Amino acid sequence: MTFWLGILLGVYVLLMVGLGMYAGSRVNNEEDYLVAGRRLPLWLAWGTLLATWFGAATVLGSSEAARAEGVQGTILDPFASGLALIVAGLFFARRVWEMKLLTVGDLFAQKYGSKTELVSSIVQALGYLPWIAAQYLALAAILGHFFGIDHFAAILISAVFVTFLTMIGGMWSVTLTDTVQICVVLISLVILGVNFTTEVGNGSITAGIETTWRQTPPELRTLLPEAGLLALLGWTTTWINGIFGNIPGQDLMQRIFASRSGAVASRACILAGCAYILFGLLPVGLGLASRQIWPDELPQGSDGQVILALAELLLSPVGICLMVVTLLAIVVSTCTSAMLSPAALLSHNLLHRITWFDERRLLTSRLSVGIVALASLPLALTSEAILELLESALAVGLVALLIPFVAGVFLKPRGELPGLLSIGCGGLFWMGHQIVVSQLTSEAVQAGTFPMLLTTIPPELTGLLASVIGYLIGQRFSPSADVSGA
Q1: Nearest to residue 413, comparing CAs of 116, 96, 118, 102?
Q2: CA dihedral angle for residue 166, residue 172, residue 177, residue 180, rounded to 10 degrees
């Protein structure tokens, strides 16, 4: 199997490199590099949006969560994340496209001023680093498991490959490789799903789906929360974080900016969101179904991954090879998108304040990709804390950036103060709440030493409320609404 896997992997690498070099030939300036010259048609805009969202967390993470916790464990991914794309398409895409922006930092610059642009760009760019590092680790794990490559060397190989794909063609490169990769991913998942349901349903796909659903316990088939205030708050926070925390993200907005028109951007988001939820049901269903085959534990050799265990059970050796390349494609697609987003903020909103970089905008954009790649490497090499960093990074968009972003799109901020206070209050109260809760012991809570409210309300809701209050205070005490001189 290793021979065929090597052949398929070689074909995949050559195809991606070829697409990347072709994309590089289409890049002539900064606008081409960051937003593909604003020329993406619907099929490319839709493809890159879906590929950016449909990552390893969707395929591997949601199948594991469904097996362990049922459908409720997959609220964040794919349901809330898919709805985020639909919400973006319905309410934000046309408006932000018409602003003719290159980055989210540009929106903060237009609506608030240069200081808010600087702060928001730094906050968001740093938030992408653990996400990129997590993709390095995922790629390294696959290379190590199937090819026996040393962990350190596998991380370096992964970083070099995705950096090359991102650096050579920017948004054009990411878009073309994303679209090809998502097609491979969806075909592989459909094949695996069909094989499984046919096996369970004695040759009938419909009977297989009905059997899987009927044999899954009712408590594992619902999206509704468990009884109790604490469960309800946690459930609500998960939906809010998944739907709205992604809205101000550079990775989402960059694809909206790159679309051919506001209408194309809106349709692409809605189509990608619907397709994301639809295809996201495949790994969720496979996770639930795996409980029928392995009620207790997954077989040895699957590394605890439902998809790998099912692939080894149901697919031919060539099919398993295709699934492995599919997993690599998923992670590479996510990683290139994650890498380009902070690089765009770094080059366009931060480094361009320096004259030398401002005079070399295209070169600066490419250099920024390399800087981001190097900055995320230490996090991957110290992987013990990566999951905690990743969870924290996901909340940054919600507590610090959502309110000033939404206000910038729909309202009229009065200068720098509303934006700075909203970002600062949201981030500080969220971090403060997290620190306080982490120091509490169960004995202290039970004894009433600390208010139960602190442990009941999720820190994300505290940060979000503080961000709203910070914005309102800033509006109240701002002297004017003029940021034209920023």
Answers
A1: 116
A2: 170
Q: Where are the beta strands (DSSP E) in 378-418?
A: none
CA–CA separation, 121 and 105 (whole Å): 6
| Alpha carbons 238 and 232: distance in angstroms, whole number | 10
How many angstroms separate the CA atoms of 482 and 479, rounded? 9
In the chain, pLDDT over 70 holds for what percent of residues? 91
Residue 239, pLDDT > 70, answer: yes
Q: Taking 90 as the threshold, does the pLDDT of residue 33 lie above it?
A: yes
Instruction: Quote the radius of gyration of the chain (alpha carbons, Å).
Output: 23
Q: What is the DSSP letter of 294?
A: -
Say if residues 456 and 440 touch (Cβ distance below 8 Å). no
pLDDT-based confidence at 175, cuts 50/70/90? very high
Query: What's the rounded Cα separation, in Å, for the pair 234 and 119?
Result: 29
pLDDT (0 to 100) of residue 140: 86
What residues contact 14, with CB distance under 8 A and at least 6 apart? none
Q: Measured in whole angstroms, how far is the alpha carbon of residue 263 from the centre of its chain?
A: 23
Of the candidate ranges 20-29, 134-143, 260-269, 416-425, the one whose mean pLDDT is the lowest = 134-143
Q: Residue 111 is encoded by which pair of tokens?
A: 């609506």
CA 273 vs. chain centroid, Å, equals 13
Q: In whole angstroms, what is the distance from residue 317 CA to residue 326 CA?
A: 14
295 preceded by a cis bond (ω within 30 of 0): no
Distance separating alpha carbons of residues 3 and 9, to the nearest angstrom = 10
Query: Which CATH code, of 3.40.50.2300, 1.20.1730.10, 3.30.390.80, 3.20.20.140, is assigned to 2-392?
Result: 1.20.1730.10
Helix (H, G, I), strand (E, B) or coil at 485: coil
Please tell me the distance from the alpha carbon of residue 269 to that of residue 376, in angstroms, as a whole number: 28
Nearest partner of 158 among 388, 328, 15, 19, judged by Cα: 328
